[in-house]
Structure formats: C-alpha cells, structure tokens
Records
---
Amino acid sequence: MKKIEEETAQENSRLNEFLQFPERSLIRLSIPIIIGMGMHILYSIVDMIFVGRLGGEAIAAVTFSGSFLFLMFSFSSVSVGSQSLIARWMGAKDHLKANNTAIHSLLLGTFLGIAFFLTGRIFTEEILILVGAKDKTLSLGTTYLEILFLGSPFLFFSAFSRAILIGEGDTKTPVIIMTSATFLNIILDPIFIYTLGWGVPGAAWATVVAMLTSFTAYFYFLFVRRGAYVSISPKFFHPSFRLLKQMLRVGVPASLNQLVMSIGGMCLHRIISIFGSQAIAGYGLGGKIDMLIILPFIGISTALLSLVGIYYGLFKYSYDKSYPL
C-alpha cells in the first residue's frame, strides 16, 4: 500500500511539472531523444568507416541493407500510437488503462518483430535484387541482411518499450540504453570485422548483439526492476480490440509516413545503382550526414507527442470522468 502511494505521489509530481512548466518540459524531454538518436547516427557513420576499409562494394552492400533497417524502423514507428495513448492515460490519471495499453503495446511489438523476421528471411535476396543490388554487392548484402533480420524481434520489442517510457515522460532511460548499445556496437565492429576476420557479416553480427543488448536492458527495466510507472503483469491485461484500434489509429499514419520515405530511398538506390557500387557507397555516406540536419526536429516532435497526449488526457479527465477515449 505504501509503495502504491509513493508511486502515485511521484507520478503526480511529474505530471504537475509538465503542466506548470510546459516549455521547460518540452526541452527536457527533447534533449535526451536528440542525443540518443544522434548516437545512433554516430554509430552508422563509424560503421561505414570500418566497413569502408573492406572496399566500395562492402559499403554499397551495407547501404542497400540500410534501406531495410530503415524499413524496420518505419514499421516499428507504429509504437508512437502506444506512446500517445499512454501519455493520455497519464494525463487522465488512469493507471490501470496505462498498464493495459503498455501490455498491448509489447504484444503488438513482439508480433510485428516476428512477422518482419520471417518475411525478411524468406525474401532477402529478392528484395535486394529489386532495389538494384547485383554480383558481389548482392552476395554481401544478402548475407548481411539475413543476419540483421535475426535482430528484428529485439528491435521491435525495444522500440515499443521505448515508446512506453517516453509516453510516461521518461526519456532518460531510453537514451541511456540506446547510448550503451551504440557504444557496444562501435566496440564490437572492429573486433568482429577485422580481429575475427568476419568482414561485412561481422558488422551485421555487431548490430544484432547491440539489438539484443537493448532488448535485455528494456526487459530488465520493465519486468525485473519494474522501474516504469506502468506495471506490466498478466493481472492488468484485459484484451481490448478497441484499445488496439486506438493505438493503430495514431501509429499507422506515423508508420506510413516513415514507410513512404523508406520506399523513396529504395527507389533512389535503384536509380543510383546504374552508376555502380561506388556511387551507392557515396550516396550512403552522404545520407548519414544529412540525417544530422533533421535530427532536432524529430526529437522535438517526439517529445511533443507525449506532452500533447498528457494535456489531452487531463482535459478529457477534467470535463468527462468517464473518459470514453
């Protein structure tokens, strides 16, 4: 009983801070997100540097494969639906519905991760051919992707766990996990690629290990340490298609937006592939730098989603106690 009262007081304290200082809260939420995503871009650049020593075809293979990594991120963007919904329940001070939403979110993320893994493993080579990969680049890219798809269930689980924490206003934990996994990836890259002599597949294995590390950290935080405000337990799970529909109503448009960008990138790869692997390699390197420009906007918009959800939930709660979302 005492623990529940302490958690409630802490939750109300955080909620009051959001309400009293919205501008400061937006900045406080945005900065960790920007740092975390910046670390991911740093990893991508460092990864290209290590792979680059293997030659232009190796970079081209990773660049082609990077399109499908971005495709995974596009589908995992469905998680913003749970982020928004949890933020609303936080604002409405409805802990039970926030718990149920978090559980639905993790189940959805697990299902999508497994589905993506199975689909990717079956059609890896055909997809790479479709975007213009051929010869040695196709061989390297197929091997790289087949390994990378092993980590898709871990990636989706981590994405939905991250959405749960950001939805309740905790951006520090996700950035700590993301930063730690990124540094681990950077450390493992040269070991797997050069020391063990695995080459391009070594870069893929380093990424999969980093995905597994993120998964393990989120699992520990949510299920063992129970550090989140939401409580994830079978006793709080009540199957609800209505709840799932609400999550998808917000998440699917966000995912489609990313999906269009991903498909556009694949089309560009197809066009640029006409000029050879060196052109693809150059395009891949330039794309990493380009991401730095839009990074602050993504961070602010992600944080804004949580704040708007909290205010919306509080507004509905204040004027309609039944809150039939």
---
Amino acid sequence: MRKINLLQMVITITLLIMPGLLRAQADYKGCSDHPLLSRMKDFYISSCQEVEYDAHTFYDAKGKRQAIEGHKWRISYKIKKGFKPAGVLKIKKNYINSVKKIGGTILKEGSHAFMKVDQSGRETWIELNTATTTTGDNYSLIIVETAVMEQEVIADPDAMASGMNATGQVIMTSSVEKHATKVPNAKFSALLDAASLSYGEGNKVEAVQNLKMGVLSIWDELPLTVKNIRLVSDTTNYTSRKNNVFRKGEPIYITSQIFGHKLEKVGDGYKTSITTDFLVIENNGNVLGGQQNVLLLDHISPIPVTDFSLDLTYTLSGASEGIYNFQTTVNDKNSGKSTKFMTEIEIK
C-alpha cells in the first residue's frame, strides 16, 4: 500500500509540474523559424520580430559594413530546460555548413557571424549572434531579404492644389492608413544596428561613435528646443537652487540645454550661432521691459557639437517684491528658427 500511495503521489506532482514546464519550452506565441534556416536541436524560440521593410548593418566579404534594406526577421533561441548547452562552436558550424550547402557565402566569422545567400535574384543576409553566451545555451538570428519597398503613400497633385486654395494647408493621407505615420530613417536604424554590433564585439568606443553619428543623422529633423531648464545657485558647480526666491538685486542664474540648432559647415569646422532676447513680465501679464541680443554665441568647433549648455545671468535692479516671469527667446541664426521658455522667480 505504501508503494501504491508513493507512486500516486509522484504521479500527482508530475502532472502539476509538467504543464508549466511545457509552456516554458514552447515557442513564443506567433513565432516560427525562418523558411531558409531551421533551429538547433532542443532549442525553442524565446522571442521574435518580423518587419516588412527595415534596415540592418551587415559585414560584406571585404569586411566593410553594409546597410541592407528589406524584409527583416529577428529570432532568438534558448536551450530547453533539462538539456545540455550545445556549445558555441557547434552552433556556428551548424549554420555555416548549412549556408554553404545551399550555395551561400560566409562573409565574416566570430561572435557575430555574417552570411549571404543568393537565390532567384534575391539576396538573403544573415547575422548569427553568439556573443550573449559562452556555453551555447542561447543565440539569435537577424535575417534580411532584400526587396524593393512597395510605395503605399500616394500624393495627388490636383487634390493638393485644391486643398491649398481652399484652406491654405494640405493634409496628406495614405491609401492604406488614414493616420499619420513616420517612415523610419534607414541611415539612423543602420547606425543603431552598427552601434549594437560594435558593443557586442567589445568595441565600446566605436559603439559610441556610431551612436553619435546616429544622432547627427536625425539632428536636422529636430525642432529647436530648450530642455533641462533649472535655476542654479552658482555657475561653477551648477548646484541646483533649492527654491526660486531671490533677494533684491541678487543675480539670477539659469542653465539649460539646446537641441535642434543647425550646425553650419564653415571650412573644416562646424559653427553654432545663437542669440537670446528676454522680457520681464509681471504676474498679472504686464511687460515691464526687455532686451534683444542679450547673449551672442558664435562658436566654431572642429567637431559637430550637439551638446552644450545655455547659461544666462539676469539681475533685476529696483524691482519691488513680487512674482516675475522671465521669457527667454532663443534664436538660431543658422536656421532662422526660434523658441521660447518661461522661468518664474519671486523677489522678497
């Protein structure tokens, strides 16, 4: 009887545990292998992403980076619980041998292995990433099938003309989608991929350089913007001020950061050209006064500078006690853009 009871107990526990184990080993919902390549034995798909048209950076046969655009897959695999890791070398050899058997080319080997297959006039680029493991318990694939992007947005010049005549503005709509969409910047996406690749290979300096180039690739798309505005108690250590209350005649230090200013190429340098205007406004909205061109910043740097602080010092002479608003207007002479921000202070 004890043997039967013990057996029944074991069976009951197994039935309770197994469903959870089975769920953990199943492929992530909606994921499947790429049609060209199967997976390693005893692995399951832990995550995946499929995008109809995107870009990724690969290495070509000459060791140069290439931004490849087309149908893109990201598939990540993990070893099932209870099974021994496959080993990094075994994973690499399996995929390299498989690609070679179908006439593919091995472009670069390493923790990020790059391969290419030409079939029926279409190129399939493959990146095998084993940089995330030392035992071969996980790996991932990034696959891009080159394709010409299908143009879905249609512009009707006649409709544009009639729209301009009637309202002075044109609203662009897609034949597929009625809401506004933003087409990803292919160069930006490729540089992010390149930064990720460099970081995975341990080249962190190169990763940062690619990230900075990515910022520059979209810099002109940014509106002129002032962020991180704060009052400081000094301009040496930039210690944040505890409150916005000042004594009569006490200097008011404001620091901020500018985004979206145009970097004008001058010779081999990059010029930033900023001016500021200000108004002092009472709490009831009355304008007490102001001044144009308070700050004139013309700076040329050998590198494109996207990060710099805008430091301002204001002093109210003869102002009575009360609440005041400083309206600062930032003008970018290179682009002709302007933006404003308000800072409230109290005089006691």
---
Amino acid sequence: MTEALVLSLTLAAAPAADGEQAFRSRCAECHTVRALQRTLRKRPAAGRAAYLEGFLPKHYAPDAAERKAIVEYLAR
C-alpha cells in the first residue's frame, strides 16, 4: 500500500512531458501543428498563449503542466 502511494506521488510530481509529446498524445489525433499555428497566427501575438490556456482545459488537456508544455511547443 505504501509503495503505491509513493509511486502515485512520484508520478504526480514528475515533470510534464515535453510539449511535442504532450501534443502528440492529446492533440495530434485530430489536429496538426501547422493548422493550429495558422489559427494562432490570426490572433495577436500577445493573446495566443491566453487563448490556448482558455481552450485546452476543456479540450482534452486538463493538466496545467501539460497545457503549459503544449502552449510552449505551439508558440515556437
């Protein structure tokens, strides 16, 4: 029982996957990087990250660290 708790806490504390991997696991089934970057370029640069931060929690990326990695990956 203790080992399961330690493993659970370790996994929760582990750093989020890099943005590319997070994108592949959460987004790539339906979206391409190119298409999302085209969509983002239509928005003011200063608001792109905020747009994604508002969109992703409701769109299969509920984890804050994972969202941050995806936003950084798409904003490159």
